User: Fold these one by one.
Assistant:
Number 1:
Amino acid sequence: ALPIYNGEEGFMKWLNLVCKNIDIDVIISDIDMPIADGRTLCKKIRDYEKKNRLKKKCFILLISGNDHEKDIEELLNPFGEYRADHFLKKPITYEDIIDCLAKHLLC
């Protein structure tokens, strides 16, 4: 686990590891972060993956207290701007995260 404090730092840490051929399996990000939010982090990662034709796509789980259906649909749209893999509404528990990851990554 690599803790980050804003979306820009998260992208730079992710990019640094990817450039060293280190696979990042999962990113869990709050949508509301300073400097660059979770949306921006997700978009930058997806754009980089697509532009550089990365073989392995990182699973991105976004969390937020906001549960507006339109916002969630926009975040999860596989052809949209952000292309997150899953969304959880706060408050969340460790069990919520484990269940999500088990459902999506152990298929």
Note: Residues 38-51 form the longest helix (14 residues).
Number 2:
Amino acid sequence: QPQVLNGQVKKRQGCPEPDSDADQVPNDQDLCPDTPLGEVVNVDGCSISDLVPCEGPHDGGTWKNHGQYVSAVAHVANEFLAQGLITPEEKDAIVSAAARSDCGKKK
């Protein structure tokens, strides 16, 4: 993993690259540039909440129902688990939190 120093990702050559959200993914490679501090991100700089926002699918629209939202969270959480970014316990906690949320529920 690259080192971060004052919001800058330090390249192996020692030349820092801007990383405005301090997620260890340089701005020019970060597909999710405003990830909240401390969230686990994939190689594209996206967290699970970036990829599966409560408001609706990442590509637009709204969730058909709560089950669709929970299923999407579980799918992305499994990808993060397979990539070694989160533990099985963290995945279970993330999916449980999604199941307890109001995301995708009709108002």
Note: The first helix runs from residue 48 to 51.
Number 3:
Amino acid sequence: SLSYPAVIAALEKGDFYASGGPLITALYVEDGELVVECPPCREIIFACESRRALRVAGEPLTGARFPLLPQDGYVRIEVADEKGERAFTRAYFPGKDFPKAFCGGE
């Protein structure tokens, strides 16, 4: 819902992302990886506080997976569509937004 109370509640919970056009339809952790799903796009970037990053490019992409490591600190996702428009997530933190136990590696 885009009602004022619903928007404020989502902002307070951190359930939001910013976009100049692209959509992010799903974001979840599965088997130690952060998974993003979206309509067809040309690029998905995962960037961490640890300076580790992954750029997945090609057309069309409808999602990507990023292996989580405990030392990453946080991870942000950026999605770019065929026009170069971008969507950006907030930072997601292991231990706060998902259990550290979901992180693989050491």
Note: The helical segments are 4-13.
Number 4:
Amino acid sequence: HARVCSDYEGDVHLTEETGAACTLLFEGGRVRLLCPCWPGGGRAAVYLDGVPYGTFSLSADRYLRQQAVFDSGPLYRARHRLRVVCTEGAVAVDAFALYGSKSAGTV
């Protein structure tokens, strides 16, 4: 979904469908979820390795790019699965920042 050039690689992935999800499989020691926040932004739930880590809001007074809405903190360096599920309204995912792995960086 094309947005502005300050989003990672110039776009985000957006859904307004409750229950829609995206999944990241990765090896590493930490992951952060980067999302834009904006007026009218919705809510999403985060699961790491099948464990619910709560919900977060993407609502803000103005458009904010690349907000770290979830940070796993230190993890065992192993294979992990991060799942983001739209629970209400419009949810956009911009990027995942990976640390402590061969593929460290932003995807």
Note: The chain has no helices and ten strands.
